[in-house]
Design goal:
Layout (H helix, E strand, L loop, with lengths): L4 E3 L3 H11 L5 H19 L5 E7 L4 E7 L5 E5 L4 H10 L4 E9 L6 E7 L9 E4 L2 E2 L3 H12 L5 E4 L2 E2 L1 H10 L5 E3 L1 E2 L2 E2 L5 E2 L5 H6 L3
Parallel strand pairs: 1-11, 4-5, 4-7, 7-9, 8-10, 9-11, 10-12
Antiparallel strand pairs: 2-3, 5-6, 13-14
Helix pairs in contact: 1-2, 2-3, 4-5
The chain binds uracil.
């Protein structure tokens, strides 16, 4: 299977990403921008959702009108920065279900350890969009997707704002069947596994920690 990477190059997304990258952008403004850009990201990640039709009556005539097919979508936030994308995505798709996955890296084994996992039911019959603003090393994203697959999820996409080439490679080495959506693939990772140029630590910038 050929792994798929979609770079969302919509001018509004690129403009807002530049403002998010800027170190001068305040915490409050960063949160606003993240919510705004996530509406646009949600629009792009759902661009090819299947439609069916249902009979309705407009004030003038009866018609078979297009409507989303299948069960409600599910968004999975990778804690904690994934939460910054949820509000905007839910603004666009209010009926979506939401789950959370928390992972940390064991300093000894370097393996991802799950500390939180709460997801909706019927995941195997939903399109699941896993979200995290930054795809850096790709290890926690890949671990979260592995965990969701263990729960029977088969129809999944991964959505981020900024990816590194290393993250894309690691993620797709494990999950070539999961399409990636991102607004940018940056130059690479630094020695602390931050994306360069990136935007810094997304969680810290969202919440004003650090
Ligand atoms: N997580 C972040 O928030 N930023 C990075 O650059 C890498 C990981």
């Amino acid at each position: 299977m050929q792994p798929s990477v979609t770079v969302i190059d919509h001018p509004l997304v690129q403009h807002k990403l530049t403002l998010l990258r800027d170190r001068q952008t305040s915490t409050a403004k960063f949160r606003d921008l993240l919510r705004e850009v996530s509406v646009l990201l949600a629009y792009e990640v759902t661009r090819d959702l299947p439609l069916t039709t249902c009979p309705i009556e407009t004030p003038l005539a009866a018609m078979d009108a297009p409507i989303l097919d299948g069960k409600k979508l599910c968004f999975i936030s990778i804690l904690r920065a994934g939460n910054g994308l949820l509000d905007g995505m839910l603004e666009l798709i209010p009926a979506a279900r939401v789950g959370h996955v928390g992972l940390y890296r064991d300093p000894q084994t370097l393996q991802p350890v799950e500390y939180y996992y709460k997801v909706p039911t019927d995941m195997d019959r939903r399109l699941v969009v896993v979200v995290d603003p930054m795809l850096a090393t790709g290890h926690s994203a890949a671990a979260a997707v592995t965990r969701l697959k263990r729960d029977g999820v088969t129809n999944m996409r991964f959505l981020c704002l900024v990816a590194s080439p290393e993250g894309v490679e690691t993620f797709h080495a494990e999950h070539p069947d999961v399409p990636l959506y991102t607004a940018a693939v940056d130059a690479g990772l630094n020695e602390k596994a931050y994306i360069v140029p990136g935007l810094g630590d997304a969680g810290d910038r969202m919440y004003g920690t650090k």
